[in-house]
Amino acid sequence: MVRVPQSMLRVSTEASPTYTYPCIPEYKDPSKVLLVYPSESAKTITEILDQEERAKTGLDSDSEEATPPACKKTKKDPKQTAIPFERIIFIDSTWSQSKKIFNDERLRDLPCVILAEQKTFFWRSQDKEDNYLATIEAIYYFLVELFNLTSDLQYAGQYDNLMYFFVYMYRMVQKQKKNYIKIHKKKKQKKTATHEAGVS
């Protein structure tokens, strides 16, 4: 069983510093750093945990005697395995800018993780597929997925407050869209009625 360090269960400004590009800190052990970015070599959290478990047991991915993946907890084997990363990096920018930042030599060789099964609710139009998430969505889904994969406890909304302002803005934008459609529809109906009255 993989345990979540207490440091991973809390999100704080002290433990989660922000840096303005091109300022990027140097990491003593890059292998312990994970970059959340959909690169060509990116893996899911499940794949990363599974890979670490197999590496520690000395079994490759093709071995028939391989133990269950690290993300799968069994009652018969309560073995504890440390999470294989200590730092998580999120690039907060537009997608066109994030590609440039990712290609920086200080980041491009870091192991990447992808949140492929999640879809964005971001209200601004973007020339990307719907699995390209807003930064706060990526942070939220990453923490929730990691918790569900590594904890015996059932998720009970521990990270939901992270999405408070995002959800607030989403609802406000949706409300404005509905009002715009309603006003536009009334104007169209009024214009049609005026035209018909003129014809008669």
List keywords for this structure.
200 residues; mainly alpha; 2 domains; 3-stranded parallel sheet; 4 helices; 3 strands; disordered N terminus; transferase; EC 2.5.1.25; tRNA-uridine aminocarboxypropyltransferase 1
Mean pLDDT: 77
The structure class reads mainly alpha
Helix-strand topology string: EHEHEHH
Shape: elongated
The count of β-strands is 3
Strand portion, in percent? 5-15%
Largest sheet: 3 strands, parallel
Question: What is the CA-based Rg, rounded?
Answer: 23 Å
Q: Give the fraction of residues assigned to helices.
A: 25-40%
- As laid out across the biggest beta sheet, the strand order is 2-1-3
Calculate the terminal CA-CA distance, rounded to whole Å: 79 Å
Supply the number of helical segments. Answer: 4
Uncertain regions spanning at least 5 consecutive residues: 1-13, 73-81
The oligomeric status of these chains comes to single chain
Total individual domains: 2
Protein name: tRNA-uridine aminocarboxypropyltransferase 1
Catalytic activity: a uridine in tRNA + S-adenosyl-L-methionine = a 3-[(3S)-3-amino-3-carboxypropyl]uridine in tRNA + S-methyl-5'-thioadenosine + H(+)
Organism: Stichopus japonicus
Family: Belongs to the TDD superfamily. DTWD1 family.
Brief overview:
GO terms for molecular function: tRNA-uridine aminocarboxypropyltransferase activity. It is built from 4 helices and 3 strands.
Describe the 3D structure.
The protein is mostly helical and 200 residues long. The chain has 2 domains: 6-158, no CATH class; 161-200. The protein is built from 4 helices and 3 strands, in the order βαβαβαα. It has helices at residues 45-57, 95-102, 135-150, 164-199, and strands at 33-36, 87-90, 112-113. It has a 3-stranded parallel β-sheet with strand order 2-1-3, with helices on one face. Strand 1, helix 1 and strand 2 (87-90) form a beta-alpha-beta unit. The protein is elongated and about 75 Å long. The protein starts with 32 loop residues before the first strand and ends with a helix. The model is unreliable at 1-13 and 73-81 (pLDDT under 50).
